[in-house]
Amino acid sequence: MKRIIPLLICVLLSVQFSSCSKSGPSAEAKKLASETLELYDATVSRLEKAGNAKDAADALLVHAVEMKKLNERTKAFQAKYPDFRKYSAAADSENQTASEKSAAAFSAAVSRTMMKYSGSPEMLDAILKMSEITKSMK
């Protein structure tokens, strides 16, 4: 789990956006970044609404599964456009601010959830499953 947050920040901050075209590397990068932020924000919302350990564990597992899918798409993007960063402009500060805000909210929500449900069997099971998913993302 701790590996995912730095990965998100690195991907969002290192993939720099240079144009508003509907196709090509910039459009794909923007779409990946947008979907990543949406996933983190949706997970925060699910964690805040979780009424019990099972709901919280389910929210974290959904996040891990979806993050794995985004990670695979990001790797495919990087393979397709290995020199994308070379041609991109400076990072857009609005996107940087949004990604930092989203990562901070996610980190806080996960911390609160882990503290609240730390001893529950559902959370322990979710942590083990998330660990397996995270290992397969390398």
Structure characterization notes:
- The protein is built from six helices and no strands.
- The longest helix is centred in the middle third of the chain and has 28 residues, at 53-80.
- Helix 1 (4-14) packs antiparallel against helix 5 (93-116) and helix 2 runs antiparallel to helix 3 (53-80).
- It has helices at 4-14, 25-49, 53-80, 84-87, 93-116, 121-135.
- The chain has 138 residues and is an all-alpha fold.
- It starts with a helix and ends with a helix.
Provide keyphrases for this structure.
138 residues; mainly alpha; elongated
SSE sequence, one letter per element: HHHHHH
Helix content: over 70%
Average pLDDT, all residues:
81
Number of strands: 0
Concise summary:
With 138 residues, the protein is mainly α. It contains 6 helices and no strands. The longest helix is centred in the middle third of the chain and has 28 residues, at 53-80.
Give the secondary structure arrangement, pairings included.
Blueprint: H1 4-14, H2 25-49, H3 53-80, H4 84-87, H5 93-116, H6 121-135
